[in-house]
Specification:
With 411 residues, the protein is of the alpha/beta class. Helix content is 34%, strand content 27%. It has an eight-stranded mixed beta sheet, sandwiched between helices. The protein has a six-stranded antiparallel beta sheet with strand order 16-17-15-18-20-19. It binds adenosine-5'-diphosphate, aspartic acid and magnesium ion.
Length: 411
């Protein structure tokens, strides 16, 4: 916090998602939020996403030319979405009579790895943004995009503008990072799917990280990871209602809730290697062959050996399924396994909550809710603060609602 001549000035990063900047009227609304913070004496950095469905539309345009386009060119193409939003918001702010400047990823020195489409942020240079803030300008930064060591434009993964905002907040030592979106906080379940879902006042970094990783798209999971690492307080709130949102921080207030939220992830596929010899070393071979090619494995289940063989099942993200099967096929004979079976019609349904650590029986309650709807559980995985089950995709929404009702009651 910097001390101004007659007041305390804070540095605030405000991130606005696609719905918040979808059209001219929404941009005017965002300009109003930004300038309000500025008029209160704060330094303000606004980070913007592409308007509405622009990123999807740009991707589709690319695939129209080439169904499997160069990842480098795809990044050049989709980064255009955030460039448009940044320019438009800056213009809207200027039109209101305030000084603003739009900056792209490369201009703010947001340096990333070269993994186009899923680049990792290495650092954000401070100097350019600082120079603009020192002149009392509102800085509008294009989210989602960066630059690699060879000077090429990169993007950091779908939903990544949240992470751009947190990375900038960390580099600039911001006092607060606000994530403005189309819901007014983090809820006990996706409020668009579960009408009785309730808003949480606070949630811990660890819970939020699990939630984001397990499918709640309200925050990009890497943004939460980074916020925790650099101790950046996040607030998730709506640009439309302007009510207080949900604070993500180290420890949430101990309003004793067993679980915080229920979520689902349909981007999962199950693969089973059948008839694996029941000997030491086979699991190692199977998973190292996938790891060597960067295929991440999630929930794992191994059956008890019977007649000298066992089955090993696990989940991967849907886009990695074909690759994983191909890799396993290559070695199947050497391992002495029988066959590979896969299923894309699955979904992960999870509960997350720090309260689980101290309360036994939470998983049993979740399973009871599923039993009540006659939903079959294919796999289970747990950690201290989450329980995940794999179910048939067609059952996923019902599973979320039933579990939500069990823990939070009807509305
Ligand atoms: P933005 O474009 O602002 O980044 P996103 O679409 O990425 O917004 O994320 C907001 C959406 O996340 C909401 O519209 C909501 O449907 C969804 N969502 C999923 N789970 C939750 C949850 N537990 N709490 C709030 N929103 C959730
Ligand atoms: N525009 C990008 C996307 O749609 C990044 C973001 O919105 O966070 O994924
Ligand atoms: Mg998002």
């Amino acid at each position: 916090m910097k001390k101004g001549s007659d007041r305390f000035m804070a540095l605030i990063v405000q991130k606005f998602g696609g719905t918040s900047v979808a059209d001219a009227q929404r941009i005017a609304n965002v300009a109003d939020i930004v300038t309000q913070a500025y008029r209160a004496g704060n330094d303000v950095i606004a980070v913007v996403s592409a308007q509405g469905d622009t990123t999807d539309d740009l991707e589709a345009k690319g695939r129209e030319i080439d169904p499997s386009p160069s990842r480098r060119e795809m990044d050049v193409l989709v980064a255009a979405g955030e460039q448009i939003s940044a320019a438009l918001l800056s213009m809207a702010i200027q039109r209101m009579g305030f000084p603003a400047v739009s900056l792209l990823g490369w201009q703010v020195g947001l340096e990333t790895t070269s993994a186009h489409g899923e680049a990792r942020i290495r650092r954000v240079r401070e100097d350019r943004i600082r120079k603009e803030l020192d002149q009392r300008r509102i800085v509008v930064v294009a989210g989602f995009q960066g630059i690699d060591r060879s000077g090429d434009v990169t993007t950091i993964g779908r939903g990544g503008s949240d992470t751009s905002a947190v990375a900038i907040a960390a580099a600039m030592h911001a006092d607060l990072c606000q994530i403005y979106t189309d819901v007014d906080g983090v809820y006990t379940a996706d409020p668009r799917k579960v009408p009785g879902a309730r808003k949480l006042d606070t949630i811990s970094y660890d819970e939020m990280l699990e939630l984001a990783t397990l499918g709640a798209q309200v925050l990009h999971n890497r943004s939460v990871e980074m916020a925790k690492k650099y101790n950046i307080q996040l607030e998730v709130l709506s640009s439309l209602t302007r009510k207080p949102g949900t604070i993500v921080k180290e420890k949430r207030n101990m309003e004793k809730m067993l679980i915080s939220s229920v979520t689902k992830d349909e981007n999962s596929a199950r693969i089973s290697v059948i008839g694996v010899p029941d000997r030491p070393g086979l699991a190692f071979k199977i998973f190292s062959c996938l790891a060597a090619k960067g295929v991440n494995v999630d929930v794992i289940l191994q059956s008890i050996g019977r007649n000298g063989t066992k089955d090993i099942s696990f989940t991967v993200t849907t886009d990695k399924m074909e690759e994983a099967i191909g890799l396993l096929q290559e070695h199947l004979e050497t391992w002495g396994a029988t066959s590979i079976v896969s299923d894309e019609n699955v979904a992960k349904v999870s509960i997350v909550g720090a309260g689980m650590e101290t309360h036994p029986g939470v998983a049993a309650q979740m399973f009871e809710a599923l039993f009540g709807e006659n939903i079959n559980i294919q796999m289970i995985s747990t950690s201290e603060i989450k329980v995940t089950v794999l179910v048939n995709k067609k059952d996923a929404d019902l599973a979320v609602r039933a579990i939500h009702e069990k823990f939070f009651g009807a509305d």
